[in-house]
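A quick aside before the break. I want you to see a complete sequence-to-structure record at least once, exactly as it would be stored in a machine-readable document. Don't worry about memorizing anything.
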Amino acid sequence: MLRQNEPDLLPPVAADAPDGLPMPRRIWAIIAVSFGTSLFVLDGSVANVALPTIARDLAVSNSAVTNVVTVYQLVLVMVLLPFSSVGDRIGHRTLYQLGQMIFLVASAVTLFVPNFTWLLIARAVQALGAGMALSVSAAILRSTYPAKSLGSAMGINSVIVASSAALAPTLGGFVVQHFAWQWVFFAGAPLAALSLLVGRSLPDPIRRCERAPERLSGLWSALTILLLIGGMQWATHAKDHWTGIIIMLTGVFSAVLLVQRERGRSHPVVPVDLLANPVLGLSALAAVAAFVASGSLMISLPFRFEQGFGYAPDQVGLLLLPFPLTMLFVAPAAGWLSDRVAATKLGVTGLAIAITGLLLLATLGGNPGAFAICWRLSLTALGFGLFFAPNSRLLIGRAPKERAAAAGGMLSTSRLLGQTLGAAMIGLLLAGGLGMGPTPLMMSSVMAFVAACCCILRYVTVRRNHTARGDD
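That is the input. The structure line, written in tokens, reads:
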């Protein structure tokens, strides 16, 4: 029998809690959010298969070409928290649709980039638009679905994410094989147009606060992320590694000062009030570690498959397909289970499975067949799928309603920060000549273990607090 009072299950929903949008408007709103979610997931993943081809055509190194992914993710991470605060002032729907329009224009520009520098600039503008929309997407979901169905809602959203991720490598491989690689960056544009067409069904753009804009905190948080990730990229790609290290240390110092400033604010841009909660803080930390593990996996495998094992780009796309395809089936089940089973039980079990799959991938022989690759990827995806949906539901559902956008920004930041760090680490390994072997997969295994430790610590900490208050 399941214990409903376990500390990492959500408390019962109050009788007077908001019940989402009425039908059939809710259906159209879900469609709009689904197209938007698909758009950003597709654009964030579709370029992975194209990286070796871009490196060859634009005459850049393998380590440098990972900046196509890293710059996109870096800008996303930089703007998520500031724009989640902006969304509270101008309305979540307004910011969501403005971001989609910027993304749509930038996607068209990518078709005409003349060199690698302009490609990175166009990707940065794409990321700006995507970040504006993603910063409030979780808050929109929470307002769209009935409060009692939050777990199932996260499961449905995970299906959309998994479906888009399943399409991305196959679509990317097909485009690179048969068209100019520039078209991979335009693949999500039709979804942006469709989302905008039905976007009027989204929750009304209500301003949740009238406070003055937090320009200083927003710019400071973006600069801090730039220093941290940019310093890592500098250390990875430049000859002067010490400059990059100094930049990273400056970012650490800036983060400490920023957190101290934000602690005294009622609605901080950096959600230190949410991070101070053991459930939210440890869930966010676990998410970062797990996304480092899964993100570095999906960045490193195309290089190993194409340049290490000799597969063609379209074959690489098909070989990567089992990972998102397995997530497609696991995510909704994990979301449904998260309404009934403690997130720690699901998450730790899943991460143990993921670690097993990663270690099996690391021990692949020199000329593995498709089946040997695919079942290992499916096993790894099964593990990650059991972790992501319950952890996300816990993080979003535990946050106060008035801090829904901040919690959503924190969730998206955790995901993208993890993926960005993963891409940067793979770039570092490629630059050091270690990117083709088992080292990236071993690194992913370590990060998955860190995520599992965070889940266990979260459970122990909250259980201890409950016991001290006499809740048991």
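Two observations worth writing down. The domain at 25-204+265-469 is CATH 1.20.1250.20 (Growth Hormone; Chain: A;). Residues 1-5, 12-18 have pLDDT under 50 and may be disordered. We'll return to this after the break.
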